[in-house]
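Quick one, T. Sequence first:
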Amino acid sequence: MVNVHSLFLIHPSVLAAPKIGSFNLHPEPLPGYAGLNAPSWAIYNGEPSHAVTLHWMDAGIDSGPIAYEQAFELDEDDTGLSVSGKCVRRGVPLVLHLVEVATADSEAIPRVGQDLAKRRYFPPGPPDGGRLDWSRPAKELERLVQAGDYAFPFAVGPSGG
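Structure tokens:
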């Protein structure tokens, strides 16, 4: 099973059902950006780079072992939408590679454990509830606007993550 941008937690019995395993294509580097809206959070936080991660799913939120990851640089004019597009363009080949490896030898799919001490979880919704704090530096406010430039900025899922 391959999950892409679900706002719901999948029941552990469903995750355990596929013979090979369950995977999540996550538009962020793990364990540093667990949760929702990572492309927007990365821009808001002024990150110089980002990544898309294909990881094994477990009962936690974005906590399973990493199978594949593709990093890339962020540009100063990137928006939540443009970074999400970069994640899709790099993530689809990861899924195709997973299928190739699984077809040849499913035991060869990597399982790189995450260092959960380095985990940062980003909750649904925008920073500060979406309120602009005019006392903050102008560059930070500009990044908030860029981060929210997306069809569904800072989406809120019923699962809380």
